[in-house]
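A.,

Following up on our hallway conversation. Structure tokens first:
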């Protein structure tokens, strides 16, 4: 069974950068759409970015366009979220989600905390 493990969170100063990783264990990610979501205190879960199975197509929330970049390395079973120009409002738990392109089976990681504060 596919398991997802996020890493790379932590405390970042405003304007700083961080790179999150979402690594798959148990199965490969080759046949999965991958999405990064975030959940901030008192707010609903928000979709941040997503990438197609081949990495050809990406999509971003308006709030992060131009600042965040999603990419994937299927050989490493890992999807990345490069976050630049971080703002305090980016503070949240970031989670990755893998959806199989055919079966639509859906898997979530546990999340990694990103805190943007001086």
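Then the amino acids I'd put at each of the 118 positions:
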């Amino acid at each position: 069974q596919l398991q997802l493990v996020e890493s790379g969170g932590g405390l970042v100063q405003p304007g700083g950068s961080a790179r999150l990783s979402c690594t798959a264990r148990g199965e490969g990610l080759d046949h999965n759409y991958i999405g990064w979501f975030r959940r901030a205190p008192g707010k609903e879960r928000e979709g941040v970015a997503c990438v197609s199975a081949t990495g050809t197509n990406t999509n971003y929330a308006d709030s992060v366009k131009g600042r965040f970049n999603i990419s994937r390395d299927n050989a490493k079973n890992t999807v990345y979220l490069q976050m630049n120009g971080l703002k305090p409002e980016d503070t949240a738990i970031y989670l990755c989600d893998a959806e199989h392109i055919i079966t639509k089976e859906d898997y979530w990681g546990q999340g990694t905390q990103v805190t943007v504060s001086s």
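DSSP finds no helices and eleven strands in the chain. Curious whether your intuition agrees with the design.

B.
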